[in-house]
Amino acid sequence: MKKLLFALMSIVLIACLFAGCISVIPDTEEGESGPIVESTTERVVMIELFTTTWCCFCEMVEPTLEQLAEEYGPTQVILLEEHIWESDYYNMEAEMRFYWYPSEDDRGVPDVLFNGLNQRIGGARYGTYENYKKAIEAERIKETKIYISASKKIKYSTIIISGNIKNVSSFPLSSIIINGMIFEDRGEVGLCYLVLDVFKGKKINLIITDETVSFSFTSEELDYEDINNVHGVIFVQAFEDPSREILQALYIE
């Protein structure tokens, strides 16, 4: 009798499952970790454009920078559009980063930084294709000191980026920070590289030659339009150097 009852219960459970009367709890993660991305031996140029939606001069330089980013590709040039100062796409972390750079005497938008303050072109007067390209090339010829590898994972409306950096130079590096940003391509000029979040970063006092350091960052809950157009960048920066030099950057699809 017990065997018959068990068999009947099994049949009912199977029938309910196919009929949809048993709810299956979905996976809490929106996908698995993506492939590991690695930096090349070439120096990557990270361009930070500090901008805002009410700035007419910003509208003049945005398409030029986006054109250059498209021409070079993310393995050579990574553009980040950081909206500050009461922009429609205001980002508090981006504004804090803007004030972190030592430029209090002549702050304004648009302000374009190439690998930190190594190269800087403010305003629209000098913001030409030729000047921007010259600044990019000046950074690309420099020695690569850092190797980066990382992968991205999506969980709910947050993104987790984990990986390693390695000192590939012939001398120790001091006072550096591993950091990163999440950005989205909204498909409009000035919003093709819209920064959604800036990580707090991980400071490293000293990393010797061939030493490897791991990291893991989790974004805030992101207000994105299409997760398929959301990307990441990891970069290593000298936080105590007056130039705030970015030693290497890595684009993460």
Q: Report strand %.
A: 35-45%
**Are there runs of 5+ residues with pLDDT below 50, and where?**
1-29
Structural class, please? alpha+beta
H-E order? HEEHEHEEHEEEEEEEE
Gyration radius, rounded: 23 Å
Share of helix among residues? 10-25%
Morphology call: globular
Mean pLDDT across all residues, rounded? 89
Count of helices? Answer: 4
* Largest β-sheet summary: 5 strands, antiparallel
- C-alpha termini separation: 59 Å
Count of β-strands:
13
Outline the structure in words.
The structure is a single chain. With 253 residues, the protein is an alpha+beta fold. The chain is 22% helix and 36% strand. The chain is built from four helices and 13 strands. Strands 8, 9, 10, 12 and 13 form a five-stranded antiparallel sheet that branches. Strands 1-6-7-11 form a four-stranded antiparallel sheet, with no helix packed on it. The protein has a four-stranded mixed sheet with strand order 3-2-4-5. A hairpin with a 7-residue loop joins strand 12 and strand 13. The longest helix has 18 residues, at 2-19. It is globular, with a radius of gyration of 23 Å. It starts with a helix and ends with a strand. The model is unreliable at 1-29 (pLDDT under 50).
